[in-house]
Amino acid sequence: MRITSGLRRITAIFGAAVGLAASGRAQAAPIQPPTWTLRSGVKITASGRFRPGAYRLTDSGQGVAQVSGHDFTLDFAGARISGPGRSEGVGLHIMDARRVTIRNADVSGFLWGVVVERSRGVVLQNCRASYNA
Length: 133
Description:
This protein is about 15% helix and about 40% strand. It is built from 1 helix and 11 strands, in the order H-E-E-E-E-E-E-E-E-E-E-E. The strands form 2 sheets. Strands 1, 2, 3, 5, 7, 9 and 10 form a 7-stranded parallel β-sheet that branches. Strands 4-6-8-11 form a 4-stranded parallel β-sheet, with no helix packed on it.
């Protein structure tokens, strides 16, 4: 009798837990940051990632990718930015940023590959800026 009542109690607890999971009130999956296609003049102010690929872009005047804002991470994850190769423009322009992390950026073919100005706490992880003037 004790074993049966114990099994009923365990079944009831397990059933309630399964019910919570099925109803959506259980722990939710983490929200994935948005994924963008890189284009010249893009302004980034929040966490996200770029679609992998080789992007040959020119600077429209403020940098191919313009990053500003606070407390976020931007992942280039296989996206490579190539400039015109004529020693002009900026690939990645980070300005007025606080506690921003840039990951996996690969920038080449500009006058300046990466420019950071009026910013604090900017972290570049696994980034590469090569063949810039």
